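note to self: dont lose this again. the chain is below, predicted strucutre after it. 370 aa total, dont forget to put it in the shared folder this time
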Amino acid sequence: MKRIEERATSREPLAITAAFERGGTMTGFVYVEARKQADVMAACEGILNLYPRTKMVLVPINEMPDLLRTTKTKSLEPGMYVRIKRGKYQGDLAQVEEVEMNGLEVDLRIVPRLDYGLNEDVNAPMISNGAHGEAAKRKRQGNIGAKFSQRPPQRLFSEVEARKKHNKYLQPVSSYNKKQFNYQNETYIGGFLTKAFKIQYLQTENVNPTLEEVTKFTAGAEDGTENLDLTALAATLKAGNAASSYLPGDMVEIYHGEQRGVSGRAVTVHGDIVTLRVVDGELRGQTIEAPVKGLRKKFREGDHVKVVGGSKYQDEVGMVVRIKDDRVTLLSDSNNQELTVFSKDLRAATDSGPAGVGSKYELYDLVQLE
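---
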């Protein structure tokens, strides 16, 4: 396209209409629109890393519209959650800290997976890095699949553990409000790994973070309590399958926007818009519409509910005992344990789950077959 502009006013303008690339599964191919193959050859002549003489294919007419069809990519904002597609942190949840000006890279906050040298093979050959004057390091053994299956668990960065074996690779960095370290050429702030990723290596759609994952990123208040950023969570779920969490008959509450505090019963659900009939307040009896991103399900203490998805407690049934913002704690009917999940993962239960009613046995009893 640059060459088209340069030769447009010259004596030999290029006879091509456009040039573009699609990326994704067609990475490595350039599409040039022209009426003759000779015009394409002339336009591509001398361009670095472009080889028109080795693999030039005429695109069938019925496939041309698909090449020109564009899809809108999800815009990322600080605080939103994504998942990493590749590397040691593949499948892990990460939080967006900053979006670069070019829109192609983001800085993420990740819960580290570090072994602090515990899995190094002491019998492996030594490999030196003389270019930087660093000491020789032992190369780890094993294939990639084994490494991925045995990767360290997620936990915040520990300065004490890093100093035990890798003190020379640990460098404290001055910071005003949080402890910041540089460990093995990576930056850790407040216990989290801060790292830049290209957007194509991130899953931005249907992230569906669970409460257990999001809790790891909660900010701590001065009194030691946890503070969950519901606005950032709602932004992440906005383009996901959050709408499928609502069904006609669900009690919902608007917690964001001009109609904040209005609650009612869902009547219809179309895409990301929920129509609800207000049950209290000045708008009682009226029907209004609200976007899913500003809604949450409403429950009361004593309600009998069932976990329907998005949590490891799926299909558990119990009674609501505590509600805080968008988190609901229920007492399980099966084992009398308290479970905490997002309200969107709950639904009013029509069945009950007490196990062993009228029986001398209870769950987890040790029995012998006769």
